[in-house]
Design a protein that fits this description.
heterotrimer, A mainly alpha (283), B mainly alpha (254), C alpha+beta (416), A: 283 residues, MetI-like fold, 0% strand, globular, C: 416 residues, alpha+beta, D-Maltodextrin-Binding Protein, domain 2, 2 domains, three-stranded antiparallel sheet, 12% strand, disordered N terminus
Chain lengths: 283, 254, 416
């Protein structure tokens, strides 16, 4: 294979340019501008003046927002992985019903998150569809805008579990059948086959989708804004509130908040890449 | 047991859309009524305006624009990652993944000033930013397809007398068509369903269906219109999805 | 073929090019944009406006307002040679945000020609020099407004200075479910007492939401002993004197609120949903004009009634503001003038159309014009402006708004 690759390196580099240049430009300009604004070097009015004020003022709130966002993203990712894996195994194990589940699950992929959030709101809010179905019990918990972000997490888990199932099915459906047959002839039970064959096979795709889901839920605005409580605020809600604030000085803080969420996301992606590489070198 | 699990999964998938569908055809529906007390098509009839048609056309062209650009770029990027030596390959891979790490709102807040200063027209600016958002997905789709694709296929084709061009066209086309369809679809969704990028960069000049949804949802007593708009936004990609997958599924069964 | 650097090196140089480009694009800032034209007479404005397309940015969540602009105001503008395009937005500051972003980028050909605005949007824009000023004197229809009307001279304490043309007036209004409350309170303190006596049946939108923030200021005026007690201009001393009592009252109220005050409705719309679903019995709005229609369409229950307060509530006027970099400024002035005509103001005041209270002084109109207003049908829900605005007071200076909002967020929303 190396024989084929060596002379084509330069051509391959040219191939990469159309994709690499727009990304580098957009991301580079965007991060630079955000950083400059967060340090007061691009004010609306008056001369640019360096100040780290946006980073230090209300630093504890910034930390709390970061923790809140991390909590929401972690729980959502975990739930999405579990439900997504169950979906995928069900589709693999049960032929006819599995196909229906697969089709329905794939059908939720095109639903934008903003609509998903509206739908979950209608379902879970006070006097929402679920409470009405249950006959309006007095003790109905505060799911929408409650302290634990239940509705927000439900929306992410609902949308992203379908995504996880799609990725897992796409990566293992070809190889898993033969291996499971082999395991079955060797006397493995259904549970053993899932734990010993399906789970290890899907581990890499689970890891990749975990990173994607985590980063997506960390940076997603619509659901957190529509379904979250007044306080504490996740990072995107805080950033957009400050960005659209009528207080001119708030935009610096908005940029600082945006950069914090970029940093957290980048850290998670790097961890995921390291874990994947470790996994690959072990196997 | 299996049936119960299957039913639970179906309920999990379907439940959130039930109130949306009911609201889209509800006349009046107030708590504690479990079902609407009257039904009407007012939500859908309110959609039949030139305004909505224009917004649908904008959404469609934005989705197609993003997909038409991001799909081939993702393919080229994936090819490059495969063909380059390890170091630059890793760098390209990193760049292709980078937009994932940047929340859309952060990307938009930073880039907006530069786009304005460069006199990039709003539709073009929105398309550019969304292409960058979509590239990790399209590149990922082609990367995983290429990982399962073997150059030996092409070599076999060539040893059977095919020219290099023929081999690439025929063999690759069939092996990568599925990945291309998936990538195109995902990129289309990025443009079709976007809200925050269109809002902040589009500057009101680009009015897509999600933007109409946003302003409809910010009013009291607008549930019918909001739900009908939601249905109108979800249906076209669903039809596209069915068109892309059903023939393949049928072929597989045969 | 000439030798080329390795791909890696090339990327590195490309990265630095991008970084330099970014700096160049973004570093120089605060570019000042001057209004392109100055007009001497309205005829010059009319001549310059021919064929222009005016983008009016306004809150898009009010179907009646949208219909009024599209079906009544836009055709009238078309008759005078100006195309009016309505740009719906979810929140008014979005429009100012767009103007400021364009100014920051040094753009003189702005995409925003008119904004339906008032309060902090206006004062922030004025602080950032984002508005054209002194142009409203040119408008012939300004003659029908009262030159001494305090609501039209100051917008939340910020002098209007001809930077925006009046559009309509509004009155902050509470409403209640008459099936649940037979003996409604008659003062703001009464509402708070009622809320305390009926746990879980009252709440308000969380500031910085517009409506919630008005409620917060009304509570401050009430705890201070009346609207005349608190100075309109903002000062730290006045804030320290009057804000704590309001925050204390709301903190005490918190356990009696819906959900024990653990969370607050996101906005007026969310509060209305709670009201319609019977979760709370009192709600509030700065746009009482919409109530008639919301009850008629069934979005609010038929038992909805307006609750007037003895001490009166706050009132304001809203305006059409013209950004300094508007590409179609002349057309925007023409539209603002048409919007202020007695015919348009009367049409807009019809509860069946939009029901917005007029910004004109009807005493200054001709009898025929007055007749347009007298023939308006009465709303079954909303009393007329005279009654709603009895004992009304004006808005505090807009600097009060962010200060109180922030204090509320720290003391009440964030506190454990």
């Amino acid at each position: 294979m190396t024989r084929r690759r060596a002379p084509t390196t330069r051509r391959a580099a040219l191939l990469a340019l159309p994709a690499v240049v727009p990304i580098v430009l957009v991301v580079g300009v965007s991060l630079t501008a955000a950083a400059l604004q967060s340090f007061g070097l691009m004010p609306f009015i008056g001369p640019p003046q360096f100040s780290a004020d946006a980073w230090t003022r209300d630093a504890d709130e910034l930390v709390r927002s970061t923790l809140t966002s991390t909590y929401v993203a972690m729980v959502s990712t975990l739930l999405s992985l579990v439900v997504g894996f169950v979906l995928a195994t069900y589709v693999l194990a049960i032929p006819r019903m599995g196909r229906i589940v697969e089709a329905l699950s794939a059908a939720t992929i095109p639903i934008p998150h903003v609509i998903g959030a509206g739908a979950i709101g209608l379902l879970l809010s006070d006097s929402g569809f679920l409470e009405r179905l249950l006959g309006m019990p007095e003790a109905f918990p505060a799911l929408v805008s409650g302290p634990w972000f239940v509705a927000v997490i439900a929306e992410y888990a609902w949308k992203e579990s379908a995504f996880v199932a799609l990725v897992v099915l796409g990566s293992i459906s070809r190889s898993v059948g033969d291996l499971c047959d082999a395991a079955a002839t060797l006397g493995a039970s259904a549970g053993q086959r899932i734990v010993r064959v399906v789970l290890p096979l899907s581990a890499p795709s689970l890891a990749v989708s975990a990173a994607i889901v985590f980063v997506y839920t960390l940076g997603s605005y619509e659901a957190a804004w529509l379904l979250g409580p007044t306080s504490p605020e996740p990072l995107p809600v805080r950033a957009v509130r400050l960005f659209t604030s009528v207080d001119l000085a708030a935009r610096q803080q908005a940029m600082a908040t945006a950069l914090v969420s970029v940093a957290v996301s980048a850290a998670v992606i790097i961890i995921a890449i390291l874990v994947l590489r470790r996994h690959r070198s072990l196997s | 047991m299996r049936v119960i699990l299957g039913c639970l999964l179906v309920v999990w998938i379907v439940a959130p859309m039930v109130p949306v569908l009911l609201w889209s055809v509800a006349g009046q529906w107030r708590a504690p009524a479990v079902l609407p007390s009257s039904y009407s098509l007012q939500g859908f009839t309110a959609l039949a305006t030139p305004d909505t048609a224009r917004a649908a056309a904008s959404s469609l062209s934005l989705g197609l624009g993003v997909a038409v650009i991001a799909t081939p770029l993702g393919y080229l990027g994936a090819l490059a990652v495969r063909a380059l030596p390890p170091m630059p390959s890793r760098f390209v891979e990193f760049v292709l993944l980078a937009p994932l790490a940047i929340p859309p709102f952060a990307l938009v807040m930073g880039i907006n000033v530069a786009l304005l200063r460069l006199y990039v027209s709003p539709p073009l600016g929105v398309t550019l930013v969304l292409v960058v958002t979509a590239l990790p997905y399209t590149a990922f789709m082609f990367r995983s397809a290429l990982a399962g694709y073997d150059h030996r296929f092409e070599e076999v084709a060539r040893s059977l007398g095919a020219s290099p061009g023929q081999a690439a066209r025929h063999v690759r086309y069939h092996l990568l068509a599925g990945a291309a369809a998936r990538a195109f679809f995902l990129a289309f969704l990025v443009g079709w369903g976007d809200y925050i990028t269109t809002l902040l960069i589009g500057g009101g000049q680009l009015r897509t269906l999600p933007l109409l949804l946003g302003s409809a949802a910010s009013a009291t007593g607008n549930e019918q219109l909001t739900a009908a708009l939601s249905v109108a936004i979800i249906l076209p990609p669903l039809i596209l999805l069915a068109g892309l997958t059903l023939p393949a599924a049928r072929r597989k069964r045969q | 073929m000439s030798p080329s650097p390795t791909p890696h090196a090339r990327w590195r140089s490309r990265l630095s090019v991008a970084a330099i480009l970014a700096l160049g694009l973004t570093a120089c800032s605060g570019a000042s944009v001057e209004p392109a034209e100055n007009f001497g007479t309205f005829d010059e404005v009319l001549a310059a406006a021919q064929g222009q397309t005016v983008d009016l940015w306004m809150f898009g969540g009010d179907a009646k307002g949208n219909a009024y602009v599209d079906d009544i105001l836009a055709p009238a503008a078309q008759d005078q040679g100006v195309t009016l395009r309505r740009v719906p937005i979810a929140d008014t500051p979005d429009a100012l945000n767009r103007v400021l972003s364009e100014l920051q980028a040094g753009r003189g050909d702005g995409s925003v020609d008119l904004i339906w605005a008032n309060g902090s949007t206006f004062s922030t824009g004025k602080q950032a020099e984002a508005w054209q000023c002194g142009w409203t004197d040119l408008l012939p229809n300004m003659q029908y407004t009262d030159p001494d009307d305090p609501l039209l001279l100051n917008d939340f304490g910020t002098p209007v200075d001809g930077c925006e043309a009046p559009w309509h007036k509004a009155q902050f209004t509470f409403f209640y479910n008459s099936d649940a409350i037979t003996d409604p309170p008659t003062s703001l303190q009464g509402i708070l007492d009622w809320a305390q006596a009926n746990p879980g049946r009252f709440t308000y939108p969380g500031p910085p939401d517009f409506t919630g923030s008005v409620f917060l200021r009304e509570v401050m005026l009430s705890t201070a002993g009346g609207a005349d007690q608190v100075p309109l201009p903002y000062s730290q001393a006045a804030f320290d004197q009057y804000a704590p009592a309001a925050l204390r009252a709301l903190t005490e109220l918190e356990p009696s609120l819906w959900r024990e005050g653990a969370t607050y409705p996101r906005d007026e719309q969310a509060l209305n949903t709670l009201f319609a679903d019977g979760e709370v019995d009192v709600a509030m709005t700065y746009g009482p004009a919409t109530l008639t229609d919301l009850v008629a369409s069934g979005a609010l229950p038929p038992s909805t009634k307006v609750l007037t307060l003895e001490e009166g509530t706050v009132g304001n006027a809203s305006f059409l503001a013209l950004p300094v970099n508007a590409a179609d400024a002349a057309g925007a002035m023409v539209v603002a003038n048409i919007a202020l005509s007695p015919e348009q103001q009367a049409a807009k005041a019809d509860p069946g159309t939009w029901g917005q209270f007029t910004a004109l002084d009807t005493d200054l109109l001709t009898p025929t014009q007055q007749n347009l207003f007298e023939q308006l049908p009465e709303s079954p829900i909303v009393p007329d402006y005279e009654e709603l605005s009895r004992n009304a007071h004006g808005e505090l200076a807009s600097e009060w708004v962010p200060a109180l909002n922030e204090a509320w967020r720290q003391d009440i929303a964030t506190a454990p």
